[in-house]
Amino acid sequence: MLEQATLSVGGDTYHLPVVDGAEGDRAINVTKLRETTGFITLDEGYYNTGSCRSAITFIDGDQGILRYRGIPIEQLARKSTFVETCWLLIYGELPTREQLRCWSGLFTKYEMIHEGLYKHFDGFPSTGHPMAILSAMINAMSCYEPSLIEMESPATFQIAAARLISKIRTIAAASYKASIGLPIVYPKPHLDYCSNFLHMMFSIPFRDYEPDPDTVAALQLILILHADHEQNCSSSTVRMVASSGANMFASCAAGVCALWGPLHGGANVAVVEMLQHLHDDNVDLNDYIRQVKDKNSTLRLMGFGHRVYKNYDPRASIMKELADNLLGKMRERDPLLEIAKRLEDVALNDPYFVERRLYPNVDFYSGVILRAMGIPVNMFTVIFAMGRLPGWIANWREVNEGGATLYRPRQIYTGGLARDYVPIDERKSA
Ligand code: CMC
User: Fold this and answer.
1) Which atom of ligand 1 is closest in space to residue 265's alpha carbon?
2) Residues 6 or more apart from 425 whose CB is under 8 A from it?
3) What are phi and psi of 5, to 5 degrees?
4) CA-closest residue to ligand 1 atom 31
5) CA 356–ligand 1 middle distance (angstroms)
6) What is the set of active-site residues?
7) Are the beta carbons of 325 and 382 closer than 8 angstroms?
8) Among 124, 359, 381, 428, whose Cα sits 20 to 30 Å from the Cα of 65?
């Protein structure tokens, strides 16, 4: 007999099925709760809500474990490439040599964006935020790919996925060039995924950027580390939009918007701004920590804490090592890295952070690395989006494969009781 949980409420007892995950994770299925009891569950902020069953990514937040399709992030970081990791996340297995060759070939084939799309960049003011432009352009792409919206076969899906992952770097780099008033640089088919992006970011007419292998490797690692993270805010958004039957482009454009916020992907910008402020204003770190702990202040230690990790974020450990390696090779030391390390040290020895199990997350060191690579601060979250895209696509696919049930939460209504409409002449001013 399957295990059941027992719920007693209002003198009645109900039995709810228990669901077991592959890694010992357990849930109580409440899908029929309202139908049988009249109650719904309330979990504002989804602290304890499993919104779906997913076979893509596993996180054990207490142990600090992250695996894509079962493979530990540490192994992928050491041995894989971003292009291969995209396949793994979307299709569930590492590609064979032939599959990888064809997959990479699709990325090269679709690296250009439609000439009509380039004209959109003229419509944005130079002050436009690259995340706004990215989201708008991903959505606009669907206007140029109408045959891919229906996605009638696995082959069309594969082409749409490869197009999106390939073109996001072209759009991202073009939005940067447009924002600084320089001519847009076209992709070069002989370059690998990361070198090509750096070429489009930093080449200028008559002067090609020569990608430095350490910078290329760092970008590759950053993209792999960001590629998926189970039901985070942006991936859940993508699933929510996808559940209505919306196409992949629309769903991923929504993911970009969700990622933008400083509590999610925008934290990499917030961390560097915080470190810069600490440096420029010569702020005492102990004083700063006192401020972030103050309940009357809205200040948070950016890059610290995570909804799921109550241990060191495994991505942060890899980022820290990368920061040390990459910046260690540079002639000048970056004072922000030194401040980040001292800040981490102070925080990890403070009972406030220890008791709440707040550790550095992926964003704590990523901004310092991106800065060292010459990436401007307003592009940091765009890089995060480029990395997260395969995760969004994998989630979009999973929703669609499951026969798309509409995601539609309920609520506890706290507004006014029923009342009549008042004509405008009879309304009293408040
Ligand atoms: N600095 C100071 N206090 C914090 C912090 C922080 N960074 N994070 C959490 N706390 C405190 C919080 O005030 C609360 O204290 P108390 O119990 O006394 O009220 C307690 O820790 C629990 O916080 P919470 O807000 O309930 O936890 P959460 O799960 O909602 O927060 C978080 C997760 C990431 C939003 C939060 O830790 C935070 O705001 N961190 C800073 C922003 C950041 O770095 N975001 C990137 C997340 S990782 C990248 C990604 O996946 O997007």
Assistant:
1) 52
2) none
3) -95, 150
4) 307
5) 9
6) 306, 363
7) no
8) 381
HEC string of the chain equals CCCEEEEEECCEEEEEEEEECCCCCEEECCCCHHHHHCCCCCCCCCCCCCCCCCCCEEEECCCCEEEECCEEHHHHHHHCCHHHHHHHHHHCCCCCHHHHHHHHHHHHHCCCCCHHHHHHHHHCCCCCCHHHHHHHHHHHHHHHCHHHHHCCCHHHHHHHHHHHHHHHHHHHHHHHHHHCCCCCCCCCCCCCHHHHHHHHHHCECCECCCCCHHHHHHHHHHHHHHCCCCCCHHHHHHHHHHHCCCCHHHHHHHHHHHHHCCCCCCHHHHHHHHHHHHHHCCCCHHHHHHHHHCCCCCCCCCCECCCCCCCCCHHHHHHHHHHHHHHHCCCCCCHHHHHHHHHHHHHHCCHHHHHCCCCECCHHHHHHHHHHCCCCHHHHHHHHHHHHHHHHHHHHHHHHHCCCCCCCCCCCCCCCCCCCCCCHHHCCCC
Report the amino acid identity of residue 374.
G
Segment 335-345, tens digit of pLDDT: 999 999 999 99
Residue nearest ligand 1's atom 39 by CA: 263
Ligand 1 atom at shortest distance from the alpha carbon of 264 = 52
Of 229, 260, 307, 352, the residue with max ligand 1 atoms within 8 A of its CB, to mutate for a pocket test, comes to 307
Q: In the structure, which protein residues have their CB atom closer than 6 angstroms to any atom of ligand 1?
A: 229, 232, 263-265, 267, 292, 300-307, 356, 358, 361-363
CA of 303 to the centre of ligand 1 (A): 9
Query: For residues 45 and 233, what is the distance between their CA atoms, to the nearest angstrom?
Result: 10
Q: How far is the CA of 276 from the centre of ligand 1 (A)?
A: 21
**Residue that is written with structure tokens 């798309």 in the block:** 404
pLDDT at position 17: 95
Q: Give the distance (Å) from ligand 1 centre to CA of residue 266.
A: 14
**Among 358, 362, 365, residue to substitute to test ligand 1 (most atoms within 8 Å of Cβ):** 358
Q: By alpha-carbon position, which residue is closest to atom 27 of ligand 1? A: 307
Ligand 1 centroid–CA 239 distance in Å is 24
Q: What is the pLDDT of residue 211?
A: 85
Condensed to tens digits (0 to 9), the pLDDT of residues 68-111 reads: 999 999 999 999 999 999 999 999 999 999 999 999 999 999 99
- CA-to-CA distance for 255 and 239, rounded, in angstroms? 9
